[in-house]
Structure formats: C-alpha cells, structure tokens
Specification:
alpha+beta, 703 residues, seven-stranded mixed beta sheet, 19 helices
Length: 703
C-alpha cells in the first residue's frame, strides 16, 4: 500500500517537472525568437510605433468686446468618476459612506435632493461585480474648484498616517475642453460657435465670427512623437503648437444689451416672426451692436438668438429711396430740390400694374418725396436718366461701392443683388421698381452702411466687427478703412439729411407721430415691403417693416437699422414698429451719456478728485450736514447749483439730486419723467423755456 502511494506521488512529481521543463523551454524559445530569430520584425514594429506622430491641438483664441470683456473663451470642465471594479473597492465600505456623501452632494450641488443623490449613488451596485462601470460619473462637467471640493467628500479611502487623508479608492478625473460665452445668448449668432468638422475631425468655427476668423482663432497644431528614455517611453513635442490669436471686436456690451432688449420688447409686442438690428458708429463704421431674434419653436424664452439675418438680403422697401435720391442729387438728375414732381393716383410705366403711393398727392416737391415716401416720385426721378438704358443703373450703384464685399468679419455676408437689366420694356419696368425697394435684395448691414455714409458727409466707411488681434507677441489695432473715400459731396449729404429729417420732423413725415423724441433728435427713413412668400406671392398685410435712423441730427454719431418681419398685432407700421426700436435705443444711449452731449456744469473735478462729490442741493445746509454726519473731512466737491431762470419759465434743476429736482418742478406745477440714475444732467424743455402748468419735464440722470 505504501509502495503504491509512493509510486503515485512520484508520477505526480514527474508530471510537474515535465510541465515546468516544457514551460521553460517555451519561454527560452520565445526569448530567443524575439531577440534573435524575429528581432527584425519586432524592431520594425517598435520603430513604427516610435515614429508615429500625433497632432497637438492649439489653444483657441478668445473673442473680446471693444473694452476687452470676454465674449467667447475656452474652459476645461471636469467629471470626477469612480472605478467600481477597482481591486481595492469594497462594496460594504462604499454603502456605509453613501448617506454622508449624498448629504454633501445635496449641499454643494442642489440639482438633486439628498434622497435622489442616495438613489443615484447606489444604482450601479444593482449590477453584478463583473458588469459594474469602471467610469461611474459622480457629477458631470464641473469646474476645477468644484472638483477639488469633491475630493474632500467622505468617499472610501486608502489608509494613511494621520493627519493626512488617504486617496479616494477608484477616483478618476476626466476632463474636456469647451467653448463658453460668458454673456450667454447675447450676440450669439454674430459671435458664433465651434464644433467638430466632418472633413478633418477637428474643432473649428461653425458660423459667425468663430467661422469667419477661424484661421486666426484656431492657430497652428503641433506635432508630438514617442521618445524612449531610460525609465520609460514619453511623448515629446517635436513641433510645439502655436495658439490662436484673441480677436478684439467692436461690440460694446452695454449697447448690445440695449439693442437686444429693445428689439425683444418690440417683437413680443407685435408678435412678429423675427427681427434684426444693427448699430454702427458713424465715424469708424464699428458695429457696436448686432441682434438677431426669432420665435422660439421650443420651450423657454419666446424669442431667441437665431440666424444672422443682418447680413442676408431682403427686398428693402422704401429705405432704399435714400440711395435713389443720393444718385439723383450727385448725378445732377435733380438740380432744384424745390422742383415740383406731378404724381396723381397712379403712374403706368412699362407694366400692366401701375405704380401707386400709399396716399394720394397731386404733386410733391423733390424735398417732399422722401418725407412722404412717394413711390411714383422716386421712380419718375430715376427713370429720367436711366429709363432709356436701365442697365446703367446697376453700374452706377456699383460705382459707389454698394455691390462690393464689405469683409466686415461676419461669416455669410451677402452682397446686394441688383439684377442685370436689359434695355427693354421689362428692364424699364424692373428699374422703376428697384428705385423704391423691389426687384432687388439688400441686407440690413448694407442699408445701414449707406445711411452711415450720408451721416458721415459722404465718406463711405467700411463696417467692421473686428478691431484688432491680441496674442503671440502681437497687439494690433486695425485702421479704419473706406469702401469709397466719398460717394457724394458734403453738400449733397447734408441735403439728404435734411430730407431724412423731414421724415421725422416734417409736417407730413411718415414717422412724425412716433419718432419725435424730446431727448435726442432722430432722422431717418421708414420702409415697408410686402413679403413674397414661395407658392403664395405678395399678400396684403404680410410685411417686413424697416427703419434706418441717424442720431443725433446735430452731430451724427450712430446709425441704427432695424428690420422686423411679419408683425401680426399692435404696431403694424414701420415708424411705430422698427422706428420705435431705434427711438428707444437712442434714448437709452442718451440717458447713459453715450451721445457726447455737453453737460458743462458737471465738468471739472467731479470725476477727477479724491474727495467726496456731493450733488447740488436746494437746501444749502444739507451738504454740510451730510459731511458732518459721515465724517467726510474738511474737503469735499459740491456740484454747481442750478442757474436761476426768469419767473414763469421752466426752472433749472441741472446738478440736483432726484428728490430735490422733483420737489422744485412739482412745486411749479410740472409733471416729471425720469431716465437714468444719479444727478440731473439734462432736462427737456431747457431751463428758461416757457411751459404750461401740467406739462411734462423730461429729466436725464447720470451717475
């Protein structure tokens, strides 16, 4: 029996020895094969791996506002997660920590309650161990600060010597770069967005500035390769990436906010399909604000930032009459602005459908044609010169630079569409319609640029959204450039401004009832165009309403173009609709001191002194009492007291605080309307003017 057991044991040992020898032989064979026999093959694979290069993405440049505020920038978002199959992960320890962990998450990330967090944290434990996630996200897309905060939460940890805390078992931190806009939806369409392109699978601009300036913002990618060192194989930057430039735009954040808010209010008031607005600075062509809003097809806000229609072409309507009149004045088609043009009910000119005006006039002078927006009068003037050869009209428009790409910096910019007319009856018919805004397509940006040239005494400055570049050792401001140094004489530009002034301030002006602001003098032109809908055609009451305004008239500083499509209630006219947006924008800029009005009584040491500045007061002793009660010291600056005005006239309240100003004016029997905050820096009617008891006095306050 013993011999038999011994024999069995020896056989087992023999089998084990043989197995070990076979394994050893296999190992020796593979070692020899890898290092000698197949060395060439493995060296070739190693060389291939070490020679493989990868692309290093550059850091995308920022998009900045005119004052340096960040409109678009890069951010790294982090997602802390747990490896639930980590060798040291213990389910019991994890379950014990969950209640305290859920409380911490509910406190710092209140998107869920503690009960909901508990349910979420325990949910992956329902699966078998082998199927549990190796990357269970705790909280997604959080900041670096929040990630560091999560590391202090009561997770199961490795042991460590006190007072140090051991590391969290199975914790991983995943990160991803994102492009963010700190101001949210403000000017979203103009700023643009980025995404992975289909062709090269890299992140580039998709629309807006992000696309138009992608070559500058993106930079140049680098090249990295693997390099064998003594202890490890590491990545080595063979060609370092060149980060993109930061682009400084012309956008003014305050103005952008004003324009978007006023456009949004009007769209909601009139229940329109969409609206767009552009605000240009006259002297430089800088686009200070650009807004595009349309009905939201989903839930949430009713109107959202949308397609950039400011650079897309539409039949412009009567706002294009300023272009026709500019050519008429500059080419001598009209030499006497008091010339009487016969009109009548309608005018048949090479077409079955006659040209009509919205209201009857037997005749108008040239000065009155824009004031009353006469289609017949505009067409008669233009066809005088270009009727025999309609093709020359497009050539004349091209000569002033109106058909050239502006290269404003906005992707998708459309050049105006003026069809090439034949010198036949159809061409003459289309010419007459082009003169007052049909049979052509012009974007709001191009319309604004034309009115900007009229405001700028004929200098046709190029609208721009990009002001300069910052980065890579460069800080460049681009110079202001002109499309044409001059498209009309100074005298003709001023004549045109007088005609545009009559539209608002004239006895029969189409905008006289709505745009005569007591605070800032606005001039401009209304425009209404029927919408030609596919398969339906032109329909009465389905309109696009436009107004292009210049303000202040005395010294033009800004041009504002607003276009609103298909309003369905309330404000159904161009002046009461788009025009009111321009008026509200102008008044808001005035109230914030952005129109450079001279408030001489506030100048001096008011903003340049280390001492306290006190408003003027109706009670001379009040400032002394404030100084003593607040221990302001012996030195202070008191703004100049209002000048005295004759009895029976509007008293001056310039320099007073709001409470004193209201007291003075209401004591005299006037009503008070207030814009802004701070002390009174402007009043309408002016001090000393005659006004009746009960009249309204408009006060502008500035901090």
């Amino acid at each position: 029996m013993k011999k038999e057991n011994r024999r069995n044991i020896l056989w087992r040992y023999a089998l084990i020895v043989v197995a070990i020898m076979l394994i050893t032989i296999r190992i020796v064979y593979l070692l020899v094969d890898n290092t000698v026999i197949s060395a060439h093959h493995w060296n070739k694979l190693a060389e291939k791996e070490l020679s493989r290069t990868d692309t290093v993405e550059p850091l995308r440049g920022e998009i900045l506002a005119a004052d340096g505020s960040v409109l678009a920038t890069n951010m790294i978002l982090y997602t802390p997660s747990l490896d639930l199959r980590h060798p040291k992960f213990n389910e019991d320890s994890y379950r014990a920590c969950v209640p305290a962990l859920a409380d911490s998450l509910a406190l710092h990330f209140p998107r869920h309650s503690a009960k909901e967090w508990t349910k979420y944290l325990l949910s992956p434990l329902k699966r078998p161990d082998s199927l549990r996630s190796r990357d269970f996200a705790i909280v997604r897309d959080i900041s670096y600060f929040d990630t560091e905060l999560i590391k202090t939460f009561p997770f199961p940890r490795r042991k460590a010597k006190a007072p140090r805390k051991g590391s969290i078992i199975g914790l991983k931190i995943n990160s991803r770069p994102v492009r963010v806009r700190p101001y949210g939806a403000m000017a979203r369409r103009s700023i643009g967005a980025v995404g992975v392109t289909e062709s090269i699978k890299r992140i580039h601009g998709k629309y807006g500035l992000e696309k138009a300036l992608d070559s500058l913002l993106y930079g140049k990618p680098g090249i990295t390769k693997r390099v064998p060192l003594t202890s490890a194989i590491v990545r080595w930057n063979d060609v370092p990436p060149v980060n993109g430039y930061s682009v400084r735009t012309t956008i003014d954040i305050k103005m952008q906010d004003i324009v978007e808010n006023e456009l949004n209010k009007m769209l909601e008031f009139c229940d329109a399909d969409w609206g767009t607005a552009v605000l240009l600075e006259v002297a430089t062509g800088d686009i200070k604000a650009i807004a595009n809003l349309e009905l939201n097809p989903g839930k949430g806000e009713r109107y959202i930032e949308s397609l950039n229609r400011a650079v897309l072409g539409f039949e412009p309507g009567s706002v294009v009459k300023a272009l026709s009149m500019l050519i008429a004045l500059e080419d001598g088609i009209v030499t006497n602005t008091n010339e009487v043009i016969p009109l009548g009910h309608e005018w048949h000119y090479y077409g079955k459908k006659p040209i009509k005006d919205s209201h009857y006039n037997a005749s108008l002078t040239v000065n009155e044609i824009l004031e009353q927006s006469s289609n017949i009068g505009t067409a008669k003037i233009i066809t005088r010169r270009f009727g025999p050869k309609p093709s020359n009209f497009r050539e004349r428009v091209r000569q002033i630079g109106f058909l050239e790409p502006m290269n404003s910096g906005i992707a998708g910019e459309a050049v105006p569409m003026f069809p090439k007319l034949k010198d036949d009856d159809l061409g003459r018919q289309m010419l007459s319609r082009e003169s007052y805004g049909y049979c052509t397509e012009i974007s709001p940006l191009y319309t604004a640029s034309l009115y900007n040239a009229i405001a700028n005494d004929g200098v046709y400055v190029r609208p721009r959204l990009v002001k300069g570049l910052v980065g890579n050792g460069t800080d460049t401001i681009f110079p202001v450039t002109n499309i044409r140094d001059r498209i009309c004489s100074v005298q003709n530009a001023r004549t045109l401004r007088k005609m545009l002034s009559a539209v608002v301030w004239g006895k029969h002006g189409t905008a006289r009832h709505f745009l005569q602001s007591p605070l800032v003098r606005i001039i401009g032109k209304t425009g209404t165009a029927n919408i030609n809908r596919q398969g339906i055609g032109y329909t009465h009451g389905v309109n696009r309403l436009a107004f292009c305004g210049i303000f202040p008239e005395e010294k033009p500083k800004y041009t504002c173009m607003v276009l609103i499509s298909y309003p369905k209630r309330n404000a159904m006219g161009a002046a009461s609709n788009s025009g009111m947006v321009v008026r509200k924008v102008a008044e808001a800029l005035y109230s914030r001191g952005m129109l450079d009005y001279d408030d001489s009584f506030t100048k001096g040491d008011r903003n340049n002194t280390p001492y306290p500045t006190l408003h003027a007061a109706a009670d001379p002793g009040r400032n002394d009492r404030v100084q003593n009660s607040l221990a302001l010291g012996p030195k202070k600056v008191v703004m100049a007291s209002p000048a005295k005005t004759p009895d029976g006239s509007v008293p001056s309240v310039l320099g007073l605080g709001l409470r004193d100003a209201i007291k003075v004016l209401e004591t005299k029997g006037y009503e008070v309307s207030i814009i802004g905050m701070g002390c009174v820096t402007g009043q309408v009617p002016a001090p000393g003017a005659r006004a009746r008891h009960g009249d309204k006095i408009y006060l502008t306050l500035t901090e």
